[in-house]
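Recap from last week: sequence in, structure out.
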Amino acid sequence: MFVLFVWGWLAGSLGPEEVVDVARNQATADTRTYFPEGSEAEIVDFVQALSDRGILTPTSKAALVALDNRRIELPEPLHAVLVQVAEALMQGLAVSVIPQSARLTTQQAADFLGVSSPTLVRLLERGEIPMSKPGRHRYVQLQDLVAYQEAMQSRRREILDAMAREAAEAGLYEATDGLPPAMR
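Predicted structure tokens:
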């Protein structure tokens, strides 16, 4: 699994150190994480097995085509990632792909989550996000950050759904039907 980061900066206008700083400060804006789906490998194996037996199999429409016309067909999720990368590059944005197993510093992890370093350290110390501390520095696995981020998004959705249900049960949505009351 890799994580795709898209940053806005003009090509050639920043030095390598500045690109890293921009990356740390803006990584959360357009960050998308793509995990390989387990079923996709099974589908590819199934299609290959059918093809090996001479049974007509569907072909993917998305493909990479080399200059010598070699064609590599792509699964739809990979095609969507490559389209996103191409669109970002056409807009002059920088793109980085890092492995899921990447180990981040607390500042990088805080930037990824869009929180301050002290907030991240509190989360780490409370055990809400796993960390390693081989010396005096803390490190966080990217996959642990992604899991925490997904859990928080799920929790927020559940809370908002509960609030909407309670508002509906209390008749709050009916109270706003119609025109607003006349003002003086």
